[in-house]
Amino acid sequence: MRFIVVIATLIIINCIKCESDKCFHQDDHPFPFFGSKTAYSYVSAKQNYTQPNCKPLQLWLLSRHGTRHPESTLIDEISNLNEYKDNLTNNSSLCKEDFEAIKAWIFNLTEKDGSKLNNQGVNDLSSLGLRLQSLYEDIFDQPYNPITYSVLSSNKERSRDSAFYFLKSVFNVNVTDIPLINSDDIKLNISKFQIIYDNEELKNFRNSIYMQNVIVRVSNILGLDRNLEFGTIKSMYNSCRFERSVDINSHPAWCAVFSQEDLEVLEYNDDLKYYYSNGYGNSYNERLGCPIVRDLMNNFRNKSQAKPGPKGVFYFGHSANVFSAIVRLGFARDTTPLLSSNFNDMRDRKWKTSYLDPFASNLMAVLYECHGEKKVTFFVNEVPMTVEKYGCTLCPWTSIENMFDPIVSSPSCTFDENNSSAFRVCTTTNILFLTCLLTFFYYP
Q1: Which of 107, 121, 222, 356 is a good FRET partner for 401, with 20 to 30 A between their CA atoms?
Q2: Which pTM was predicted?
Q3: How many CA atoms lie within 13 A of 228 on its CB side?
């Protein structure tokens, strides 16, 4: 028995050594999926999808802003990694290239850069605009004007800038007066009605064996005699993924401390966060998507009936906006819920923020006329989505209308402006959560 234990120990040591011998800077195809900070080009459509026998009548687009810098608080946290860079010693098991990259790492962002659109973000929206212009010439066949092309943006600078560069690439004009949402807008003002509560599954996952293994592996590869705090691990991860989002061909220094398994665990951490805050983990989140999906239905209904209306509808917002529409439309729904305990079982999950919500993520719908019949295709990040109820990607408009009209017209899909602020903070751990929900649903 003792012999078996010794052999097993040697195998584990050798496996750890093999893992540490891997050199990130020599990896030509490093792991690219970083949850909500994934680069758009990694997950967007790799080909153009068109309907050659159909004429587009209206294009409806809801887009997250393009790639941005970290928020100011994260910039401070990432700057603190200089302590670990300076104290890195030969106890580290990093290869020479990775060791030297961390030693030479420089972080130039300051608080004034916080959350601002960067050069890659400009390219994200500019290139999206050019692709859509090329694919849908019948939509973009007129000069820009706010009647033919309806535009609305979040009042955040990164969203306004995203709208600006999208319109500039499509219409070759500088639209400096981007229409912004007002305080009572219920299409894009998700935060006004969102319930914020304790995410127990996320907390449990951060204390799970999966995350503890990440902490131990990263601490060991840095040659530390103690385990790092999760917050420090997260700062290293944020440094890695924000740099990768700016330059997809780069090898950011702090990425070297993570194995692919580590990155998959941290990606699942992001998935759990959004699954419960904006996804199917809380059925209330489906309600949040009602106003924006109702807007989509109303625009397509008017256009299908040849009523006056824009040829293009373009909204620019944030992750929560895109998630709310995806959830209300029923895409990326898993039959098994994401839990802190089933990471391994959910590796092939549909709810992956890397695929659903990279920088510049978008949900788009196109209304076509095909041989006299109106049809609709939905896209997530330019990839056509299958409407599972009908098994179609190019679906009859009447079927889509019949499917969603009862939902968005339901009293449970409306909001009371007078009591919206009462339901923004709830917890799942005490009676306040139950009181919050009961009070909310008392109002139709």
Answers
A1: 356
A2: 0.90
A3: 25
